């Protein structure tokens, strides 16, 4: 990610991806996420279209990480415009956890790519996102 996180918001977003989604640190959520967080578009995410409180965001974090607790996001490219930072990313995690509607854990390393547009407020807190991710590709990796 060298040279990519050249603004305070890009750096903050990269740290959010590490601390919250990578490490699963629910205690870090208030450092990054506003009181209300809206998932504007995220097909395949059970929370798509919802506005969450911080507690709701924490619950989503725990549930979403359960399938691959060692998951990591690697930012590939970031673009900032106004109060939004878009990040194209690669995701990787080992399928060791179970979740309703998904195959039993396989132990396989899963990979996915996607892009997320994160919105910031005046205090540099995240207020929501719009995302496209290859969840079908992940499901296929679980069932091959």
- Could you tell me the mean pLDDT? 95
Strand-residue proportion: 35-45%
- What characteristic shape results from the CA principal axes? globular
Taking Cα atoms only, what radius of gyration do you get, to the nearest Å?
A: 15 Å
Work out the helicity level.
Answer: 25-40%
Main sheet: strands, sense, barrel: 6 strands, mixed
CA-to-CA gap between the ends?
32 Å
The helix-and-strand class reads: alpha+beta
Name of the CATH architecture: Roll
Counting structural domains, the number is: 1
Low-confidence segments, given as residue ranges, are none
Discrete helix count: 4
**Topology, number of strands:** 6
Name of the CATH first level:
Alpha Beta
H-E string: HHEEHEEEEH
CATH topology grouping = Nuclear Transport Factor 2, Chain: A
Neighbour order of strands in the largest sheet: 2-1-6-5-4-3
């Amino acid at each position: 990610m060298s040279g990519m996180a050249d603004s305070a918001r890009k750096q903050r977003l990269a740290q959010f991806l590490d601390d919250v989604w990578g490490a699963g640190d629910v205690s870090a959520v208030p450092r990054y996420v506003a009181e209300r967080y809206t998932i504007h578009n995220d097909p395949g995410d059970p929370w798509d279209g919802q506005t969450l409180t911080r507690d709701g965001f924490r619950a989503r974090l725990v549930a979403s990480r359960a399938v691959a607790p060692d998951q990591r996001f690697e930012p590939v490219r970031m673009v900032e415009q106004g109060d939004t930072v878009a990040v194209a990313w690669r995701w990787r995690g080992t399928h060791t956890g179970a979740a309703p509607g998904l195959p039993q854990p396989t132990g396989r390393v899963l990979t996915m790519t996607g892009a997320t547009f994160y919105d910031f407020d005046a205090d540099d807190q995240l207020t929501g996102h719009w995302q496209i991710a290859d969840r079908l590709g992940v499901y296929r990796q679980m069932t091959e």
